[in-house]
Write a structure and sequence with these properties.
The chain is α+β, with helices and mostly antiparallel strands. It has 13 helices and 14 strands. It has a 3-stranded antiparallel beta sheet, covered by helices on one side. A 3-stranded antiparallel beta sheet has the order 4-9-8. A 3-stranded antiparallel beta sheet has the order 5-13-14.
């Protein structure tokens, strides 16, 4: 089972479903023949995409060419040069002192500390509660499922307790690795070609930064023996290094993989903890918000996942340092897709896989991705609109909701434990409503606009959604039977009083016209 020679990947193309080797797959991507990779799970898509991009980028950089459209034999020859021999592409290698694909050579006498009998039990989602993707489903899995799980585990995992180290492209072992990319198309081949082209431009920049990368350094980190104690320095690596963070070996026979054996490691594979994930990865923006230059860190999403405010910051580069992967190339036409995905995780738990995509209309592309110093009035408006959200949520909707939950008390406590617990889900409903309208509203703003008028339009949207949520609360949550009329009247008084107080000077609203 060798990725360079054997047809391992199940692919749906224009001519039907077939199986291809890794070099043939890369040739297919160059000519945009791939419709779908069968067996690739949703949370694995971006990990595999990044893997293929780094692989192609490293090969092309060494050849001094930039065109990723190459024939199968080109990729087979160059990938073999990258590894030095065929062992680095074998999935099952009985000799533990030789490498296997994504599997480091181990010292003699090494003993596994755990085993995984299916690819989904091996995958990064092993850290999850058994919800997003059910664990250990694929007990008779295809070979390519093991490949995808290996790549996901080795390139996306964080720290998972003693002996289970995390990747370098993440801010701390309990962080996460977002994949942020601007693309012209969701088609697998088109996206891959566009990313590789920009990746090579990024390489020139990152080699000039003080990481100390070697342009002829190690790319495939699984080729180097690892005893679990020694960490590699960045100075030994190519900037397009493909890392492995766990010591894993696959076991199989007769063309099938039976299990994965995992071996503990006391130290991370790379000595890069002090960099907080800022290692020149173009898919991973650098968070500059509230940080000095000496303490910048890789962008990390909270347990709640990706919000419209996160997307706004990333699109406009607000307190964020972006790369070529989040910018269009000259000559790109039509609407563009700004995509973010992340598996949010913490200490031994997974809080869910999240994706958020924003389509940027063609007429807004120059405004969003124009040169530095261009008109930033739309960015200022977008930021002000988010402050309006917080005001509507916390100063208008929240007091009204708490008034209903607590039965119109004489003294309203916004720190009440029960009401605060209920508010957590209620505020999420409000966020889902306004988030769906945020970017459509922003893109509808004309090139030349009056800020007050546009904020009035946005306030009207927020107001409508706040009333919707308030009605849902009144209908769904228990009411105080003997005080129903009093509570409802008090709720309305609190809501409207807070609204007029906090949005004084905005468009005038009246109860009947709002449907309340």
């Amino acid at each position: 089972m060798n990725l360079l020679m054997d047809p391992i990947f199940r692919v749906e193309s224009g001519t039907g479903i077939g199986t291809v080797s890794l070099p043939e797959l890369m040739a297919y991507l160059g000519t945009d023949q791939v419709e779908r990779l069968i067996g690739l799970q949703q949370h694995q898509h971006d990990a595999f995409h990044v893997f293929l991009c780094y692989l192609a980028g490293a090969v092309l950089a060494r050849r001094g060419i930039s065109n990723p459209i190459q024939p199968e034999e080109f990729w087979r020859t160059e990938l073999l040069k990258l590894s030095g021999d065929h062992w680095g592409w074998e999935l099952v290698v009985d000799d533990l002192q030789k490498p296997g694909f994504m599997q480091v050579p181990l010292p003699p006498g090494s003993r596994p500390t755990s085993e995984a009998f299916s690819p989904d039990a091996l995958d990064v989602l092993q850290t999850a509660k058994n919800h997003d993707v059910k664990q250990a489903r694929a007990l008779k899995a295809n070979v390519d499922s093991w490949v995808y799980s290996l790549i996901s585990l080795q390139t996306m995992s964080g720290f998972l307790g003693r002996g289970n180290q995390g990747i370098s492209r993440m801010n701390s072992g309990f962080g996460n690795r977002p994949i942020v990319e601007l693309m012209r198309s969701r088609r697998i081949g088109q996206r891959w070609r566009d990313a590789v082209e920009r990746l090579l431009l990024h390489r020139e920049q990152v080699l000039q930064e003080p990481f100390g990368y070697d342009p002829q350094g190690l790319v495939l980190l699984w080729l180097e023996p690892w005893d679990g104690q020694e960490s590699l320095e960045l100075s030994r690596l190519d900037p397009f290094y493909i890392e492995v963070c766990r010591r894993v070996r696959l076991v199989g026979k007769d063309g099938r993989i039976e299990r994965a054996e995992l071996f503990s490691a006391d130290k991370p594979r790379l000595a890069a903890k002090h960099l907080n994930g800022v290692v020149g990865d173009p898919w991973l923006p650098v968070d500059l918000k509230d940080a000095q230059q000496s303490s910048v860190k890789a962008f990390t999403f909270p347990a709640a996942g990706i919000t419209a405010e996160h997307m706004r910051r990333l699109l406009f580069g607000d307190g964020v340092r972006l790369s070529t992967l989040q910018r269009p190339l000259a000559g790109w036409e039509g609407p563009l897709l700004f995509s973010v995905s992340v598996l949010v995780r913490g200490q031994g738990v997974t809080d869910g896989f999240h994706q958020y995509e924003v389509t940027v209309p063609e007429e807004k592309v120059p405004t969003i991705f124009g040169p530095a110093g261009a008109d930033n009035s739309l960015e200022d408006l977008s930021r002000t609109a988010i402050t309006q959200v917080a005001k509507m949520q916390n100063r208008v909707l929240k007091p009204a909701v708490f008034t209903h939950i607590l039965g119109a008390p004489a003294r309203l406590r916004l720190d009440h434990e029960f009401a605060s617990a209920a508010w957590t889900n209620i505020v999420r409903d409000f966020e889902l409503l306004w988030s769906a309208d945020y970017f459509p509203w922003l893109w509808s703003v004309p090139a030349s606009f009056n800020e007050d008028q546009e904020l009035d339009r946005w306030t009207a949207i927020l107001h409508r959604h706040a009333l919707t949520v308030l009605r849902q609360v009144e209908e769904a949550m228990p009411s105080h039977k003997g005080r129903q009329y009093l509570v409802k009247t008090k709720v309305r008084n609190v809501f409207w009083g807070a609204f007029y107080k906090n949005f004084n000077g905005r468009r005038q609203y009246s109860g009947p016209s709002s449907g309340s």
